[in-house]
Design a protein that fits this description.
101 residues, mainly alpha, two-stranded parallel sheet, 10% strand, elongated
């Protein structure tokens, strides 16, 4: 799976783009709306899957958990929720800076 980097059109340093491509990155120039779309959709969806499956595990759908597993699951949930919160702040900030909200 290629590692993707999205650059705003103002990022016009062709040598930096070439270097990133040489290092295996798929570089795409996009506008702010596209960046928001990727953040809002392509990152939120996997977080939702992580949190949803963590909830199923916590509810015992896959069997009982040991105390160590419960602690690990709590960490997973806490960090996924933290990441979701940071993503929301970032999307909101991009929306405000882009003038569409």
């Amino acid at each position: 799976m290629a590692r993707m980097i999205l650059l705003q059109p103002s990022a016009s340093d062709d040598s930096a783009v070439a270097l990133l491509r040489d290092r295996g990155y798929d570089v795409e120039r996009v506008d702010g709306g596209e960046v928001r779309r990727v953040l809002a959709h392509d990152l939120r969806n996997p977080l939702g899957v992580i949190l949803g499956n963590a909830e199923l595990v916590k509810e015992g759908v896959y069997g009982e958990l040991t105390p160590k597993q419960e602690a690990a699951l709590a960490t997973i949930e806490r960090q996924a929720e933290r990441l979701a919160d940071m993503l929301e702040v970032l999307v909101d900030r991009l929306r405000i800076e882009g003038g569409s909200g």
